[in-house]
Amino acid sequence: MLNLVLFGAPGSGKGTQSAKLIDKYGLHHISTGEVLRDHMSRETELGKIARTYIENGQLIPDDLMISILDDVLEQEAKGKKGVIFDGFPRTIPQAEALKELLQKRGTDLHAVVGLEVPEDELVERMLNRGKETGRADDNIDTIRKRLDVYHNQTSPLRDYYSGTGKYLPVNGSGNVEDIFTEISKGIESLG
Ligand code: AMP
Question: The pTM is what?
């Protein structure tokens, strides 16, 4: 199996690059943001809880998020060539849980691809996405909160994964195809 985390700030292109990785490497995509938005649109109990956090730019609590991911892995990951985790982990406890969730399924995390994009470009991309898709959390107030949460709670994962030798930094600014070429080279260098 090839299990990858696509890591980066909101607006760094995780969704765009995931779609290309799925095509090229035949991996299964798990986006925790998409899982939550699907619950919100179906107005499930979980969707109602998720909405209160998402619309405030806050993270869903770790225990809840980890149990959701465990369920999604159970339903979707069996027999797959590998998984791209998009938007998970976002905290150190989530990273530790991911390790355990993979280990209990007899597999491991192979690399963390870090999309590095300057902050002004992130804001511009999310504002454009908000206009194009109507995504509720892509408005300037919520974007600012999401970036604060990213700096405080998520960016420490960069050092966490660098310490394990699994972090592959990629310049996530500019042309989608060039970024994808750099990611592919990184993945192929894993051997
Ligand atoms: P995303 O689509 O990955 O940008 O996620 C959208 C929103 O869903 C985030 O701002 C969080 O409120 C929530 N979310 C997604 N993934 C997670 C996670 N791993 N932990 C906590 N909250 C999450």
Answer: 0.96
